[in-house]
TrEMBL record:
Gene Ontology terms, MF aspect: transmembrane transporter activity
Pfam families: MFS_1 (PF07690)
UniProt-listed InterPro entries: MFS (IPR011701), MFS_dom (IPR020846), MFS_trans_sf (IPR036259)
Key words, A-Z: Cell membrane, Membrane, Transmembrane, Transmembrane helix, Transport
Coiled-coil blocks: none
Main location: membrane
GO cellular component, one term: plasma membrane
Annotated protein name in UniProt: Transport protein
Length: 273
């Protein structure tokens, strides 16, 4: 058991997440506590890299896993996926409460269409990944997720809930189409002995990405309300719209690591030739 490696990975994840949480609570990343803890996390990452380089065969998360393009793409994608899953899942209930004036229970009920979209699409997504590979499933799902996120840049307290429910349903399908392949594709091409190590990497990156995505989008809202001295519903609406704008932009960025994922269509074309 690599106790030192596990300790370093836990320390890296916890310090970076705590740093971004401090940024969220202060309404800005430009504060000493956030910068110190994020800096400590990055320094520990360098320490772990040196340690893993010296103990390639026994380290809990070997760096040679990143020689596989699909593993690297999945890790980067999971980091950015926090802006699709955890981040908006904090914003959406607050949007319904602060902007539309709904209770906590009604805000939770309002999000049901998104869960339904995720649920009914899981089987189809799995079959598509098996058939054409994760790359094109994720790329297509990115555009679906944009369709399910960008409208929130314009939604306000007067927007029809039926329209919002439809957008949430689409968003659920797109989100599942991104996260599900990113969680499975890292294991393609790995030896059985590397499966447990890859699993640690995916879980860690998912946790860090989720914490970072949540804190970043919450910081956007907090910073906007503080800088504009927001006291009205109209001002709060603008703050949430800004956060959803950033979320939409960061969804697009996932296209970059998506190009590193498995492409079974390319393999089929080669076999035909």
């Amino acid at each position: 058991m690599d106790y030192l490696g596990v300790t370093l990975l836990a320390a890296i994840a916890s310090t970076i997440i705590y740093g971004v949480v401090q940024a969220s609570s202060k309404g800005s990343f430009n504060n000493p506590q956030a910068l110190i803890y994020i800096g400590i996390g990055l320094a520990l990452l360098l320490v772990y890299s040196a340690y893993a380089h010296r103990h390639e065969t026994t380290v809990v998360l070997p760096l040679n896993l990143f020689r596989h393009k699909n593993f690297t793409g999945s890790m980067l994608g999971l980091l950015l996926a926090g802006f699709i899953t955890s981040g908006p899942m904090i914003l959406l209930p607050l949007f319904f409460q602060d902007v539309r004036g709904q209770s906590v229970i009604l805000a939770a009920i309002a999000l049901i269409p998104q869960s339904i979209g995720m649920l009914i699409s899981r089987g189809s997504i799995g079959r598509l990944v098996d058939k054409i590979g994760a790359r094109w499933v994720v790329i297509a799902s990115i555009f679906v997720t944009i369709l399910g996120t960008a409208p929130f840049i314009y939604f306000d307290q007067h927007s029809s809930y039926l329209l919002i429910a439809l957008v949430l349903f689409i968003r659920g399908i797109g989100g599942a189409g991104i996260v599900q392949p990113l969680m499975s594709d890292p294991f393609i091409g790995l030896a059985k002995s590397q499966t447990a190590q890859a699993s640690i990497g995916t879980r860690m990156m998912q946790q860090v990405g989720g914490g970072f995505g949540s804190a970043f989008l919450a910081t956007i809202v907090a910073s906007y309300t503080a800088n504009h001295h927001v006291t009205t519903t109209l001002g709060l609406t603008s703050a949430y719209q800004q956060a959803f704008l950033w979320s939409t932009v960061l969804i697009i960025v996932i296209l970059i690591p998506a190009m590193l994922l498995t492409n079974k269509m390319k393999l089929e074309i080669r076999e035909l030739n």
